[in-house]
Specification:
about 25% strand; nine-stranded antiparallel beta sheet; alpha+beta
């Protein structure tokens, strides 16, 4: 069995950097994904067109399997992973969600995004960590245990 460790993406990044990091992480763990969920806040005028399109795909899912409130806020409910349009929409949109979570088949939450990717926590094995850390470049990953001691 592979040991998983939790890491936090270092804070202080711009939203563009956090969004890039979140998408890269989601693509990196794609082979381990079993299910996922997100909320879809009310659309904002500053969302890029790709994010708006992804939000509409996810709102369609929420209308079928989740929850849509009168004001427009929606939750997808838990979605079984398939490499399809819905997963692609999730990867595109997740950095704009207030809450987005990805689970492995073992039931571990392997990616957790909060507050428009202002908080990104991942739970990965050493090879996944190495690949993600190399691809992130200037954005660093810190062990949750060490991060908590520093706070």
């Amino acid at each position: 069995m592979t040991t998983l460790e939790r890491f936090i993406v270092s804070d202080g990044s711009s939203h563009a950097d956090a969004a890039r990091a979140a998408r890269l992480i989601l693509r990196s763990v794609q082979g381990s994904v079993n299910r996922y969920e997100t909320d879809i806040p009310i659309a904002s005028a500053d969302w890029p067109s790709g994010v708006l399109s992804a939000a509409e795909v996810l709102r369609g899912v929420a209308a079928r399997t989740g929850r849509v409130e009168r004001g427009g806020y929606a939750q997808t409910g838990i979605i079984a992973y398939a490499d399809d349009e819905i997963w692609s929409a999730f990867v595109e949109f997740a950095p704009w969600a207030y809450d987005a979570t990805v689970w492995s088949s073992a039931g571990h939450d392997i990616v957790s995004l909060s507050d428009e990717a202002q908080s990104i926590v991942i739970r990965v094995n050493r090879s996944q960590y190495d690949a993600i850390a190399a691809a992130l470049g200037d954005v660093s990953l810190r062990s949750i245990r060490k991060w908590r001691r520093m706070r």
